[in-house]
Design a protein that fits this description.
Helix content is about 25%, strand content about 30%. It is globular. By secondary structure, the chain is of the alpha/beta class. It has a 7-stranded mixed sheet with strand order 3-2-1-7-8-10-9. Strands 4-6-5 form a 3-stranded mixed sheet.
């Protein structure tokens, strides 16, 4: 049985709600705005992963964990606000480890700049204060023989992605796939081709785009998948 669209006469409340949704959708399209809160991994191509390294977790990446339900998880989150919650939720339901630290190319401590619920960054001052957090290199935290294959490295660090990759070079030969944000509006940190060239030098090529973030028709970051070259 095919349901009919609500009309003003048959269902005035439903009709009004539908008209309001349509108008809001038109406004969003005119502004060229695509609100994205999380990377959408549900349609990511390729097979399963035995190991997922999630850098920049905030309160979790459920799409990622649901997409690869059998993967061992290494979660990296520097913000104390989310650490206990992750321990009580994700870590109770999945095998893995929670690392209470940020990742970069140099070990020590650094300012974690705050913004909103999940917008914290080690690289960009968000104008809402900062806290001091420990920072390590990924290739000193994880040993090569602890990485299960195939392994996916996911990075969502609000403009600090290249620094995370620089601190992972010692184990990148054990990584099979990288899913990372690529920022177009942080030239003080890196330009898009810097990150692409860096991964190319490690044997990875861009294979697909998962999602993008844009306002007023301008894309300010997008989520890409990089896979190993098969002919190298």
């Amino acid at each position: 049985m095919v349901s009919k669209k609500p009309s003003l006469l048959t269902s005035p409340v439903a009709w009004t709600r539908r008209q309001m949704r349509l108008k809001l959708g038109d406004v969003i399209r005119l502004l060229g705005y695509k609100p994205v809160e999380r990377i959408d991994f549900s349609n990511m191509s390729g097979g399963d992963f035995a190991h997922v390294i999630d850098v920049g977790v905030a309160d979790g990446t459920p799409d990622l964990y649901n997409r690869f339900p059998n993967a061992f998880l290494d979660l990296f989150e520097p913000h104390p606000k989310y650490q206990d919650e992750l321990e009580a939720t994700v870590m109770r339901s999945r095998p893995g480890r929670l690392h209470r630290m940020g990742l970069g190319s140099v070990e020590g401590t650094a300012k974690l700049y705050l913004k909103g619920r999940t917008g914290s960054s080690l690289g960009v001052d968000k104008g809402q204060g900062s806290i001091e957090v420990p920072v390590r290199r990924l290739d000193t935290v994880l040993e090569a023989d602890s990485i299960r294959r195939p392994c996916l490295l996911k990075i969502d660090t609000e403009g600090y992605e290249l620094e995370v990759l620089k601190g992972a070079v010692g184990i990148m030969q054990h990584i099979d796939c990288v899913a990372t944000e690529l920022h177009f509006t942080t030239p003080q940190l890196y330009r898009p081709h810097d990150l692409i060239t860096f991964l190319d030098g490690l044997g990875f090529e861009m294979s697909e785009m998962l999602d993008y973030h844009a306002t007023h028709g301008r894309v300010w970051c997008a989520d890409f998948v990089f896979r190993r070259f098969t002919d190298r």
